[in-house]
Amino acid sequence: MDDNQSILELQVDQTASKNLSEVSRWAKFLSIAGFVFMGCMLILFIAMRSQIASTLSQVIPGFADVNSLGVLVAFFIIIAGIVFLLMYFLFRGSILIKKGIETKSQDMFNNGLASLKAYFMMYGILAIIALISNFVSIF
Amino acid sequence: MIDDWRVTISVSKISIRRLFWSKHLLKQVTASTFIETKTNFNMEQQNQIQDAGLFGLSIDTTGREHLKEATRWARFLAIVGFVFIALVAIFLIAGGSYIANMFGRVNQYNDLNSGFTTGMTIGIIIYYLCVALLVFFAYLFLYRFAVNMKMALQGNNQELLNRSFQNLKILYRYWGILTIIALIFVGLSFVIAILGRASM
Lengths: 139, 200
Hints:
The complex is a heterodimer.
Chain A: H1 2-7, E1 10-11, H2 14-47, H3 49-59, H4 67-103, H5 106-138
Helix pairs in contact in A: 2-4, 4-5
Chain B: H1 2-34, H2 39-54, E1 58-59, H3 61-94, H4 96-108, H5 118-155, H6 158-199
Helix pairs in contact in B: 3-5, 4-5, 5-6
């Protein structure tokens, strides 16, 4: 079997396609849960923004002026954008892989894999940023 | 009369059987999250060569590049995760006295006189160790996905490719189930909060 396979390309056979459709199902669920969670956070933030600002102004002395709320909003929007992009890649990947398997379309399948790659890549870059910021805060 | 008896007996038999099966199914579902063993491989390996022609999809050069890149990042993430978990575990186990000290300092500012006891500190440490263990499994599946995929792409090995996808499946299923459990807890806490408000 190994001799046969080394000449041929790797196949997405029955086992692999079964596994991949399960992957896409759970990944879709996770990404939708992520979207909903983010939406809830956004609503909570908008509803409680004055309270958050007043709490932060107690902790950080120079927080009281008007600009700082703008900074807070911008910071939150950046974080929400990052999470949204991450979840979007996961969602797109899961849908494309599933459709690719169902319709046996190689292009769609490859695009799904590309989305999965983008998802892992973005996660990795975020991890690197988090590591660097941790090291900076230690020293 | 006898027929009636027979009917009731058979109905009760069916309900018992149904109960058994539902229990059995539950056990199977919980077990299958962790034990995705190789039992299927031998059976399906024989079919693979015949199936390969029927399924049009393959891992071509484009897909291979994507998977290689994804694998690289997944492996990096898994290793970072392992190191992070190890650090957390070391901190929790070795720094127990430090944590207790920290809670002691919190107690100083606590007017309510309901401070942290030693038992509570140990409980919190064990809780976080359990969380670390849960996260460790997720990174283990991610690492297995990455390593198997890398070897499959290098050696053009179909079995390793399938095992890699299987680990990816387990990874996402694991996160999904953890998410569902977390959502249930969130829902419960909402219900308890609303009930608490109502009773006040």
